[in-house]
Please model this.
Amino acid sequence: MHPIPKARFEQFSDGVFAIAITLLAIELRSPVLHSQDLIRSIRELTPLLPTLITFVISFVTIAIFWVNHHQLSHLVQHIDRRRILWSNVLFLLFLTLIPFVTQGVSSYPFHPLTMLAYSLVFLGASISFSMLRYFVHKTLGETRVPMTRSIFGPVLYTLAAISTLFSVEMAYVLLAIPALYYFLPKSST
Model:
């Protein structure tokens, strides 16, 4: 395989990230308020809360993936391994599905099937990004690739998927935890 310049790898990936965020934002709709009273208006907005929560979880998750992808791409000068290219493509596939499943959950916020699909897409993105990270580090000649933080997301996304069988509300909570967790500073281990 002929090496692919790092810039080409980054530009393609950044383009997909930009499209995913744009598709996510395009689905936002301005609420219709019928009352001029503040308290009644707030009550009218209450049904939109699951949509807003889902949007924020999706946006923050994509942003975290982008930051981590950006940091990962700084480790390489060029891409000369197919496994890196294809694991990146697989990751980007799941990333582009996030706006689709977000729209599904926004339309049916308490339906177990939409929340299951949402959880499984996050799980797929998390696992495929972990694969990409592993392959990049192995290509750099590292004998031990620290993957402890990479396990957290897939475990919680799996639990979220399972929890849809008995509590969609619990799935929301479980899906929000990784976004909060990855904001924490990394330890050196």
Notes: Residues 112-139 form the longest helix (28 residues). DSSP finds seven helices and two strands in the chain.
